[in-house]
Amino acid sequence: TTTPRIGDILQKLAPFLKMYGEYVKNFDNAMELVKTWTERSPQFKFIIQDIQKEKVCGNLTLQHHMLEPVQRIPRYEMLLKDYLRKLPQDSLDWKDAEKSLEIISTAASHSNTAIRKMENLKKLLEIYEMLGEEEDIVNPSNELIKEGQILKLAARNTSAQERYLFL
């Protein structure tokens, strides 16, 4: 109560939030694994259901709890923005809270970048499978820019052939 501050504390902890990007990158795969094993193994399904019934789980599913870390950084960012809006600019916590927001916004950006990269790789994998797995296009440096129907005009005559283009 003598020095009500949170900015200095968050500033020290905020750099660790960047590792949420790794969690976010693997989130879809983890969710898919839980779904697969719940369908495949009655024993696994029973254990998960049993754990979810515990009071400490608050009647929420495993998937709901797995989603919490994905939502955490955007929540921190939102709360800090709101805190700074309501905090007087001459407050002792202003500079630390502002610096914390900057670091947390960077961590949120890292998470969003990780999500976009994973979505891009997933799409490239789908295209790779559609193309019969002949040309290996699944590479983090490759990026799908656009895809869709086009008309290819023949050089010799004016006939047009429908094609599907991946750029």
UniProtKB/TrEMBL annotation:
PROSITE patterns: DH_2
Gene3D superfamilies xref list: Dbl homology (DH) domain, Pleckstrin-homology domain (PH domain)/Phosphotyrosine-binding domain (PTB)
Single Gene Ontology BP annotation: cytoskeleton organization
DH domain segment(s): 1-114
Domain of life: Eukaryota
Gene Ontology terms, MF aspect: guanyl-nucleotide exchange factor activity
GO cellular component: cytoplasm
Protein's name according to its UniProt entry: FGD4 protein
Organism: Machaerirhynchus nigripectus
